Amino acid sequence: MREVTKDEVVRISLELNGKTVSGNATSRMLLTDFLRNELGLTGTHVGCEHGVCGCCTVRIDGVAARSCLMLAVQADGRRIDTVEGLAASKDALNALQRAFRKHHALQCGFCTAGILMSFSDFLSRKQNPEEDEVREVLGGHICRCTGYDGLVKAIMEAAAEMRGETPSNAGAA
Amino acid sequence: MKPAPLSYIRPDTAEEAVAGLAEHGADARILAGGQSLMAMLNLRLVEPKALIDISQIDELRSIRIDGNMIEVGAAVTQAEFLAWPQLKEHAPFIAKALPWVGHFQTRNRGTVCGSIAHADPSSELPLSLALLEGEVVLRSKSGTRHLKASEFQTGMLQTARRDDEMITAVRFPADVGTKGAAFREVARRHGDFAIVSVGAVAADQGAVRVAVGGVADRPACIGIEASLTVSDMTDRIERLAWELGGYDDIHASARYRRDLVRRLVPIIIGEVRACAK
Fold first, then answer.
1. Mean pLDDT of B105-132
2. How high is the pLDDT of residue A90?
3. Domains and CATH numbers, chain A
4. Which residues on A lie below 8 Å from B104 (Cβ)?
5. CA–CA dist B106, A130 (Å, integer)
6. Chain B hits for A3, Cβ within 8 Å
7. Which CATH topology does B62-173 take?
8. What's the mean pLDDT when you consider all of chain B?
9. What average pLDDT does range B236-258 have in this prediction?
C-alpha cells in the first residue's frame, strides 16, 4: 500500500520519453502540472482541465489518455510519453508530424500535441484505419482552427506512409 | 481548477481498499479510471479528504464468464471491455453501446464499474446494466452483497452504495440480445454526454425490451410485446415520454427530450425487430 498525505511532498520517478526522470509532487498535483511545472516539459498543453478538450493527451504505458484527469502520484513508476518524445531530433519529425505540416493540420498549435499523442497510440493499434474511425478518435479533441479536414487528410496519409505505401519523403522537413 | 488538498491511498488488494473505506467512510472516494471523478475534483464539485486508488489492484482487473453472467472487475477499463474477444458473441448490446461511452482517449482509462458507480442518468453503461438486468457487487468489511441494477441506481448520481462499500464488479447476464440489439443516442458531439440515449434488445416471444436514458433521473425500461398494434405502441411510448418527464438543462429542454423519446423509441424497436428476422 502506498499513502501520500495531503501535506506531504514525495519524489516521483517515471520513464518519460524513454528516460528515467524524477520530480517532486504533492498528492493533489495533476500529471499535466507535474510535466509542465515540475519537469519543464511544456509541450503538453492545458485546456479545459476536465477531460473534454483533449489538449493534455499523453500516452500512459503506451495508451493515450488525458493527463489532466490523472494525479502525478499515479504516474510513479509508469511509462509516460509526451509530444517531446515523438521527433528523433529537431530536424527529423516523425511521419505523423510531417503529414501535419504538409496538410496544414495545425494553425495555432494549441490542440496539436494532444492530437499527435492520440494518433501515435491509435495508429500503432490500427495500421489501416477507415476515415470514420479517424474522425471518431479525433472526436476526443477540439480544434478551432483547422476545420478538421486537414487533420483527417494528414492522419490518413501518415497511416499509409507508416504502412510503407507512399514515399517517405512526402512533405519531408 | 485543481483538486482541494487530499490524501492519496493506493491499496494493493481489495481487502485493503475496503479497510480504507471502513476508516474514512464518506470522507473517502474510490478512484478507478478517474474520468468522471478527477473532473469533479478539478471543478471542486467534490472535496473528499482521501482518495483510494483501486486502479492497480490485480484481483479487480479480470473479465470472466461466471455461469450465465459476465463479471467485469472494478479496475477493467471501457477500452479493455470493448476489446474483450467474447463481447460481440455474449453481450452484443454492450458491443453496440460501449463505443458511445466518452471518447477513445477517455475509454482508455475510464472503467466500466466507475461509470455505473457515477450513475449519470444519460450514461450508456448504467443504461446497459438496467436494460440487461445486471447486478452490482458491493463489498465492505462486513461482507459482500449483490444489488440489481434497479435497486442500485436510486436517482441522478445517486446509488444505494453505503459509504463503507466499494463496487468490486458488475455482472451482466450473458447472451441477452443475441437475437437483436440496437443502441442510439443524440448528443451534440459523438462521445459527449447524451441528451437522450435509447437501447433495446429482443426479448422472449417477439417482445422488445427498451431502455431510455437522459430523460428521467435514471434509466427507465419498458417492454413492448409483439402483439401490440402500431397505435397501441405509439400510445405506450407517448405515456412513457410523459412519465419520464425530462429535465431542462443547457443542452436541451424537457420538451425536446420527450420529443426525442417519441422519435427514437419506434426507430430502435424497428432495428431490433429487423435483426431478429
1. 97
2. 83
3. 9-85 (3.10.20.30), 95-162 (1.10.150.120)
4. 64, 118, 122, 136-137, 139-140
5. 21
6. 7-10
7. 3.30.465
8. 96
9. 95
Name the CATH topology of B181-276. Answer: Enolase-like; domain 1 (3.30.390)
Q: Which of B13, B91, B84 is nearest to B52 (CA)?
A: B13
Q: How many helices (H) and strands (E) does chain B have?
A: 11, 14
Q: What is the mean pLDDT of residues B137-154?
A: 97
- C-alpha cell at position B158: 445517486
Q: What is the mean pLDDT of residues B246-257?
A: 94
Q: What are A's interface residues with B at a Cβ cutoff of 8 A? A: 1-7, 26-28, 30, 33, 49-52, 54, 57, 60, 63-66, 68-71, 73-74, 118, 121-122, 136-137, 139-140
Cα nearest neighbour of B3 on chain A: A28
In 3D space, the residue among B178, B145, B181, B176 whose CA is nearest the CA of residue B161 turns out to be B145
Output the furthest CA–CA distance in chain A (Å, rounded). 55
Share of chain B above pLDDT 90, in %: 96
How far apart are alpha carbons B90 and B40 in whole angstroms? 34
Domain made up of B7-53: CATH architecture: 2-Layer Sandwich (3.30)
Q: pLDDT digit string (tens) for B37-73?
A: 999 999 999 999 999 999 999 999 999 999 999 999 9
